[in-house]
Amino acid sequence: MYPELDLQDESVDAYYEQIVDAVQASSGLTILADEDPTISLRRYEIEHRQQLRWEVDTDGSDWQVTVETAGEMDESRPDFDVRSIPPQRRHTVLTEAFDALTPDSGFVLVNDHDPKPLYHELRSIYGDVVDWEYNSRGGEEGWRVEITKTAVGDETDSDVYTKFDVREIPKPERHPTIHHRYGMLPEGEVMEIVAPHEPRPLKGEFDEQYGDSFSWEVVETEPNMCRVQITKGGEDSPDIEVARELDVRDLPPAQRHEQIFEAYDELDEQTGFVLVNDHDPKPLYHQFEAEAGPEFYWEYKKEQPGEFRVLIGKAEDGVASAPEETQGAPF
Predict the structure, then answer these.
(1) Distance between CA atoms of residues 166 and 144, nearest Å
(2) Main-chain phi, psi angles of 304, to 5 degrees
């Protein structure tokens, strides 16, 4: 009978350190948790070069995982398959795993899409100690990238959750990379952008997509360098990753609903898109309210003649702001 590690009612972010201590103290244990703890187990294997065996028993939202140690790992670059990890957690798990690597060690990242934004993030934080080599690009094997830490990395700023030096990112990839990562940023955390000048076009995009749910501060300027810190705010907004923008203003009205509902059906949990329309899409809100599940989320970001922007997503907290009951244009 193995000792139990009870992680129920704990934040999933608090799992890892407790699992490390428990695994190192015993040859086996039973983990009780509300959320999947196997992500932390796989991270432990990679960072500590120790192979684990585990069996999972789930009952609804309750997890019971029996873990046993099984000697040192044979692979020099073990697989780290993150496809089962919610998108909002992947970058955090991977950057923490990379940070803990010793020089000349690494892992093979397995993902369901091109993880290039992670490459830019790691390079921005740790410098040129990141070696990145694609082994496959999609297909049956998924996206496989061999990631190696070649030396001790740069010191990181403890006040900054993540950082991007856009001077090192190709121009077409800059804004999509930043929006992709910002969507996964926890509330209250800070993203730092280093650019050759203040990125005002990016600020305009943030104003349009996120409204007043962020703060923007220029913290340092000098020739050919501007450092901006963006804090994700808005206490009433859920942690939704904005996957895309869907502008339907040029579509015939008959095609708009179909495309919008198709985009909604493709969303994963805690993801969304920004709908851009030429008038208040209030009738669409009522249709979603009647047909979608309790995870349906709706939040106005911009309300101006000719341009309405609404964040539509799937979130645990459901609807954020409903339209006022005024006469609107038919959708």
Answers:
(1) 24
(2) -135, 150
**Is the CA virtual torsion 111, 117, 119, 125 positive or negative?**
negative
Q: What is the pTM of this model?
A: 0.68
Decide if 54 contacts 41 (C-beta within 8 A).
yes
Q: Can you list the positions of beta strands (E) in 87-197?
A: 105-111, 130-137, 143-149, 162-165, 190-195
Nearest of 126, 108, 134, 208 to residue 163 by alpha carbon: 126
| Sign (positive or negative) of CA dihedral 64, 68, 69, 74 | negative
pLDDT tens per residue, range 214-271? 999 999 999 999 999 999 875 445 667 777 888 898 888 888 989 999 999 988 888 8
Phi-psi region of 272 (alpha: psi -120 to 50; beta: other; left: phi over 0): beta
Contact assessment for residue 168 and residue 120, using Cβ atoms and an 8 Å cutoff:
yes
How far does CA 48 lie from the centroid of its chain? 25
